[in-house]
Amino acid sequence: MSKRVRKAVFPAGGLGTRFLPATKVIPKEMLALVDKPILQYGVEEAIASGIEHIIVITGRGKSAMEDHFDVSYELDAALERRGKNDLLALSRSVSSMARISYVRQKEPLGLGHAVLCAKELVGDEPFAVILPDDVIDADPPCLQQMIEVFDEKGGSVLATMTIEGPGISAYGVLAGSPDSANPRIYNCTGMVEKPKFADAPSTQAIIGRYVLTPRVFALLETTAPGAGGEIQLTDGIKALLKEEKVYGYNFTGKRFDAGDKFGMLQATVEFALKRPELGEKFRAYLKGLEL
Ligand code: UTP
């Protein structure tokens, strides 16, 4: 069994209802943040973190994701004919970006079920899970930070961010105490899904990045459907906690929930401001708005 984290699972089989009607035909994961599909941001983060094999869990009507990372013969030929070498290089870089496999989730039966669909391709080794709609701006990349914690501690790692105040109720919240040597690492003792503010066991909200040991697959297989009739990843991790050590990791960087309209707007503004070719013009435009 490899002890290195080499594979990353991208659950992308959901319905994306919060973005209807855009997501009737276009997968949520293909919505553009400035000019790149949100899925590509996650794939780039995984590669920059040392991941060698990407496994995308896809669903009905979502083949645009496969086409995006495939060779686009007609487009490339047209760009070549027109001498658009920069754009040709850009298109080719996407199709040669990574080794990607796709697994169809026949029905969107929940995040835990989506992860379970990757069982055969992952095999008996630790792996990462990246929720593509959590776009993270971080240096070093969030997943790389987590893999470093996994390598040091040898147990599963859940990325967290601090939320002081009632906003924490929208998240799964970690129970546990900070490590004495590194206060960003939490010894996880439990998790509470969307607690009332008064009942939140900590300020640490669990976000869409995980490094998990393969034991979670067997536990997900015996996990009964939870909230909304879906197999929840959180329930699988709770079962894992009874057998193995699990850590929270308060990553450094900024996370955007691009699966939600408001989060997508925030990400669009901040990522556009950082773009060399757009930033200055966009800043001037925003400053000129009468708000
Ligand atoms: P979300 O709950 O954010 O995605 O799941 P959703 O269900 O597609 O979106 P809404 O809430 O209806 O707008 C987080 C990630 O998990 C995937 C989604 O595609 C998304 O990337 N997912 C969710 C699956 O792959 N399968 C599922 O059964 C559920």
Query: How does CATH name the architecture?
Result: Alpha-Beta Complex
Broad CATH class:
Alpha Beta
Q: List the helices and strands in order.
A: EEEHEHHHEHHEEHEEEEHHEEHH
The separation of the N and C termini measures 57 Å
How do you describe this structure in short?
The chain is α/β, with parallel strands linked by helices and 291 residues long. It has helices spanning 38-48, 64-68, 73-81, 85-95, 111-116, 119-122, 142-153, 215-221, 233-241, 261-274, 279-288, and strands at 7-11, 32-33, 36-37, 53-58, 99-104, 127-130, 134-137, 156-162, 172-178, 185-193, 204-212, 246-250, 254-257.
Report on this structure.
- This protein is 34% helix and 24% strand.
- By secondary structure, it is α/β, with parallel strands linked by helices.
- It has one domain: Spore Coat Polysaccharide Biosynthesis Protein SpsA, Chain A (Alpha-Beta Complex), CATH 3.90.550.
- It starts with 6 loop residues before the first strand and ends with a helix.
- The mean pLDDT is 96.
- Bound molecules: uridine 5'-triphosphate.
- Uridine 5'-triphosphate binds next to helix 5.
Question: Which helices and strands occur, and which strands form pairs?
Answer:
Elements: E1 7-11, E2 32-33, E3 36-37, H1 38-48, E4 53-58, H2 64-68, H3 73-81, H4 85-95, E5 99-104, H5 111-116, H6 119-122, E6 127-130, E7 134-137, H7 142-153, E8 156-162, E9 172-178, E10 185-193, E11 204-212, H8 215-221, H9 233-241, E12 246-250, E13 254-257, H10 261-274, H11 279-288
Helix pairs in contact: 3-4, 8-9
